[in-house]
Every structure is written in C-alpha cells, then in structure tokens.
Design brief:
The protein has a two-stranded antiparallel sheet with strand order 1-2. Helix content is 61%, strand content 9%. The relative contact order is 0.10. It is mainly alpha-helical and 161 residues long.
Length: 161
C-alpha cells in the first residue's frame, strides 16, 4: 500500500497528535460535552429523546445524566404531560462551560487552519464527512454528526468556525 493512501494510519496519527494537545479549556469529557451540546440545541427534551439523538444505550445516558446533574450541569424535571417522563434542562453553569469550551475549540480550529489554504480545508472537511457517512452507512446508521454539523452552520459547510 502506498504510504500516502494509508487512511487509517493518517487518521490515527492525526488523532494521537491532537489528543496530546488538549484544548486550553477542556473540562468536560467528550461524551458529557456531546450530551450538553444536544441539550443546548434542544433544552427541555425528554431523556428518552436524548437517548435517540445520541444513539447510545439508555443505561449509558442515564449514568452520564446522573453524573452531570451531580456536577451541576443539568436538572431533570417531571414532564407535565407525562408523569413517567423527565425533561432535561441545562443550568447556567453548563451554558458558561460550553461557551468557554466552544471558544477554546474555535481558537484551536483557527490555529490549525492557518497551515491550510481555504481550498485544502474545504477538501479535508469534505473528505472527513464522506468517510464518516460511508462508515455510518456500512454500519446501517445515519450519520447524525454530519447532520448536526450542517445544522450548526445553517445547512452549509464552512471551512472555518
């Protein structure tokens, strides 16, 4: 195999290098951040809907919600229309933490994009999106991350955030 076509090796190397350089402000683990991100865009959704959007096991989401609630990042309230269901809400602490983390991510993204032209960045992001969509299809899943990516940017892909 041509060294330049080793996608797995290239992605693994990039991932290792990125993990060695944590963001300036990275308090939340990835799964917690992901849950809070979904809640930020759907504050007050039912816990069962959250499970569906995250495509995670209900027990894993429940454990994460319990931990996030203990840490003061969210609250759960009984659904007025269905006493069996709970709705999940972000706290001000969660919103502030997410703002700080998003600022840190934007700064790091801008720093990384400085070494790429706009065309290279667009090609890179497009290739990553295609690979994710391909793998999701192979697994019989929808590519929710790409859908969220489009949604966050008003339906368009942008090289810079």
């Amino acid at each position: 195999m041509d060294e330049n076509q080793d996608v797995i090796g290239a992605v693994a190397r990039l991932f290792r290098m990125m993990r060695r350089r944590p963001l300036k402000h990275e308090e939340l683990p990835h799964m917690s951040y992901r849950i809070l991100w979904v809640l930020r865009h759907n504050d007050g959704i039912r816990a069962s809907e959250l499970v569906g959007q995250l495509e995670m096991r209900p027990a894993s989401v429940t454990d994460a919600l319990n931990r996030l609630e203990r840490q003061g990042y969210l609250t759960r309230e009984r659904d007025e229309s269905d006493a069996r269901a709970k709705r999940v809400f972000l706290t001000e602490r969660a919103k502030a933490e997410m703002d700080a983390q998003e600022k840190s991510r934007r700064e790091e993204n801008e720093r990384l994009l400085k070494c790429l032209t706009e065309e290279e960045a667009a090609i890179f992001l497009s290739a990553c999106g295609k690979l994710c969509a391909f793998l999701a299809r192979e697994d019989g899943e929808q590519d929710h991350h790409n859908r969220e990516y489009h949604h966050r940017r008003g339906g368009r892909r942008h090289a810079h955030e």
